[in-house]
Amino acid sequence: MTEPTSPAPILRIEGVAKTFGPVTAVDGVSLDIRENEFFALLGPSGCGKTTLLRMLAGFESPSAGRILLDGNDISPLPPEKRPLNLMFQSYALFPHMTVRQNLSYGLEMERLAKAEIIRRVDETMAMTDLTPFAGRKPDQLSGGQKQRVALARALVKRPKVLLLDEPLGALDKKLREKMQLELKRMQHEAGITFVIVTHDQEEALVMADRMAILRDGRLLQVGAPEEIYERPADRFVANFIGVMNFVEGKVGADGIFEAEGLRLALVDAKPGPATLAVRPENVAVGPPGERLAGTVADIAYHGLDRVLHVQTAAAGTPLQVRVPAGTATWRIGDALSLKIDPAKCRVFSGDTP
Ligand code: ATP
Known about the structure:
The protein is an alpha+beta fold. It has helices at 49-57, 99-109, 114-127, 143-155, 173-190, 201-207, 225-230, 235-240; strands at 9-20, 23-34, 38-42, 64-69, 72-73, 84-87, 161-165, 193-198, 210-215, 218-223, 245-251, 256-259, 262-265, 272-278, 283-286, 292-302, 305-312, 319-324, 335-340, 346-349. It folds into 2 domains: 9-237, 3-Layer(aba) Sandwich (Rossmann fold); 243-349, CATH 2.40.50.140. The strands form 4 sheets. The chain has a 6-stranded mixed beta sheet, with helices on both faces. Helix 2 (99-109) runs parallel beside helix 4. The structure holds adenosine-5'-triphosphate (ATP). Residues 20, 23, 25, 43, 45-51, 199 line the site of adenosine-5'-triphosphate. Its EC number is 7.6.2.11.
């Protein structure tokens, strides 16, 4: 899949592949990343996202293809010569140094003037809310604070692009959610392009301006979170991002999708065998007898709303339907009917993956 060319890609990945012996980890990926973008590489374990990130950083060299930064081929450059910085999953902080010393170290190696080092470290500590911890050592910090030091240490060098490999992987759920928003704010304030690797789709949806979905080393789709959520390119992406119901059936010459107990008029559907895909929030529940008949098989409470699992004749597995909590008091075993919004459905014909 190729991407429409954008005015100023800071990073251009051109037909990049990487093989390790018989394993193809990355399989001909072409992708543009724009300046100041928060870009996420997302996919299941083993899809090649870390390998792609390591090639951007220069720790692996591509078996084929080129990587351009600001239009210049950086493929031959070693990691330390690239204006990119990789933040490691393990924070790799110096345990015997304070926060300030951890941040200053890289700049001292670059032989910057002392006053400049102090200025940049102060500025970066303020941005990452670390000023109160300047004198502490890593073992006197919480997980979230250590994570911020690792980020600050990467930011203080002012790379053009910061590469982050599962940066929030070590944090518990609550802190992770807090840090997702903080990371986005810091990216914005620093004005640096972030490329982040994650296998967590919610994390990518929350943080990314755009994201790429990878599977088996191949690029399946690139787009803004809402584009990918609302118009997934294939069944895999539809299933990987958020919750999706699938109904197998066929589209007639009249454009009507049919499955047992269900007839739905669709626009732009190719006649033939097809899969209808609909999100739980795009199915409405009504009294029995109106539309697709079903029986409540299970109810999951999610605070603000509830998800009904409704068994129908149209699909083998129960369809998930999101209803606001408190609007209706359905019980397991109740008969009801489902109304699917045809404008919010995706239809995958038999020949799409
Ligand atoms: P995870 O989320 O589990 O880290 P990933 O999407 O980042 O997965 P990669 O680590 O890029 O995936 O690995 C992609 C494929 O390449 C896997 O099949 C992996 O086993 C293989 N691979 C990665 N690095 C090497 C290596 N150095 N030698 C051999 N095979 C490798």
